[in-house]
Amino acid sequence: MQENKYHYMDYFRNLSFVLMLAFFCALTSNAQILETSSKDDVKNDTTEVEDNPYKISRDTTIIPVDSARLKGHEDYRKYVMDTRYLAPGDSLNKPRWYRDLFLQVGMGIENMFPPTKGYKFNTLNTFHFGVGKQLGKHHSLRLLVNAALGYQQDYDRMYLRVGGQFDHLFNISSYLNGYNPSRLLEVGTVVGVGLHRARLRSTTRVATPYEVHGGLQLRFYTGPHGVLNIEPYVALASDDIDLSQARNWHRYDVAYGVNANFVYYFDNHLSRAARNRLLKRSKEKDPNLLTADSTRLRSWMAPWLFEMAAGVTFTDNPELTGSEKMGYEWAVSGGKWFSPIIGLRASAMFSSTLWGKKTTKANQLTYEEQLSSFYVGARVEGMFNPLGFLRSFRWDAPVGFYIVGGAGLGWLMKHKDANSLHCWSESYSVGMHLWARLTDGLQFYLEPRYSYRIYNVPYRNVQWMANFSDNTFGVNAGVTVTSTSRPYRKYEVPKGEHRPRFAFGVGGGIHLLSGNSKFKGPSSIPYNANAFFEYRPGNVSGIRLAFEYMKHNTSDFTRYYDLNMNVPEYNYAPMVRKGLLNYTYNWGLASLNYSVNLTNAFSGYRPGRLFDFEGFVGPSVMFTMSRKAVLDGQESLRVNHEMRPMPEAADKIGIAINGGVKLTANVYRGLGITLTPQLYYNPNLKVHGMLLGRLKVLGSLDLGLQYQF
User: The pTM is what?
Assistant: First the structure.
């Protein structure tokens, strides 16, 4: 845990936006790769307009009415009203209410001009979510909910602001050069008003400031549903927005910043003509239904994605050795690709690493207690796929990569006797997602990641807090399942084809138990074994019965009885001593789960698929089969003396919640190899020598065999 220096945090944020600017330069340099409606394209592709089934000609001797009737069309006005085309092939005739309706999510940075030299804020982080509607070729309206987070630097107090904004957007490029939704870069203006609620933590300062703002919007086209916006702006706010009170000598405050936003249109934002051009060229270059699926009108449900991952993580702490810095992380994610280039992913995760240690001296020996840092939270990340610029890009390519980065909020727990820290922590992360295709709609990936976490530690004698930060590095391994829209996941099952309804499997592996602190004892592998039976009435849903055996070892510096075996007549003259005891637990866990074949659910049933990916969740019963305690080897007893543990309360049967996934490689005629990571949450779990905290979670990873019949 190291005290945060503000220029480090600002450097990290500014570096992130420099990378964004580099990305925009790459966009403009690859402009020719993206599909645009240039004048040459319009001349060559006029005949591809779906609304016009015959070739348009400037020869006035051709009567459109007769041509239309020859093709069986009665209403010729549909084909001669050329004035409704704002550009050849592009139309604004969109009667449905959700046409040109969009969602927007993004983040940015903001600076406020300080009223005095002694009252400054660091660079604020801003977050936005909202909905908007394009009203025509020039105008749009949007409503945003936003938040800002930063620190007032005098006393490291956290500054929080939430509120709403209403904006008007004007498309300058469309006004000057004509309406073209697939133009690579468009420039517009943003003008709006906002109302906010500001608060300075550890004080009574609150305010409800209003503001007006204006700026530019750089709008980058990335696909028929996805748009990326960059918006530099300046805001003029009432003088209470910075909560400076009497220090402020003027009646208003000035702020400036920049936002980066992902925009997702509910409908396919391209005209039919533009879609046809993209489809035709995609088929000529590399026929691929999934690429076509991202362009067609009825494709707004694809591709969604679901992920589960686990991996190792390291905390940058100079007080610990290399192996002591290593911890682990579990993560579950869901997301959506807006286009082949940009997407959005939300994740829930928890991680555990060592952050320190302390020693206890007794019996002329030294005992070490390891102190853990536990983090549970959520993050939202943007996904940027550079390969999406290629015309030959395929969602089902053999390999690929993309960049992820975003922000999160979590609950941080650091145990240290009575001074344990429990606080909120904001985080910022960036990573590289490297994936390889296993089968249609299923990928294996590795994701190296860097995270920067910021949190407050309160002073004891004053009403403010100190700002600290942690740097963590890690690598997650996981599986991604991606969706295909319904027209491309239909499969007619041949008559008489046998589909297995039952599955039986066995396996074994290791497990991990998260805790705030534990005593260091002899190292041993916490192994487990499992068996399961599944019934699948259909291609997607099923029922799973499972039993898992776990052997777990812990150590505890605790009291015990020292018995003198030479004096049985005095009940062995028990004496109470303290020392290190090594405990061995044998647990049993029986689970009843509802299972879902995610591969079939997302991509459709396919017989003979090499890999299958399933998820399951349900209740479990956890009980202690046996428990044993022995005196640690470094402890000593007198000759003919024995140790007896203190009597303990009987273990109760605990009700747990169980969930996980199963990856199956179908290698030969119903026989498959399985990999099953899963979690158990038991709120009543107690283990000697471990302070488990509130989130008592067991995680296991099993490798096994499965037979389907």
Answer: 0.80
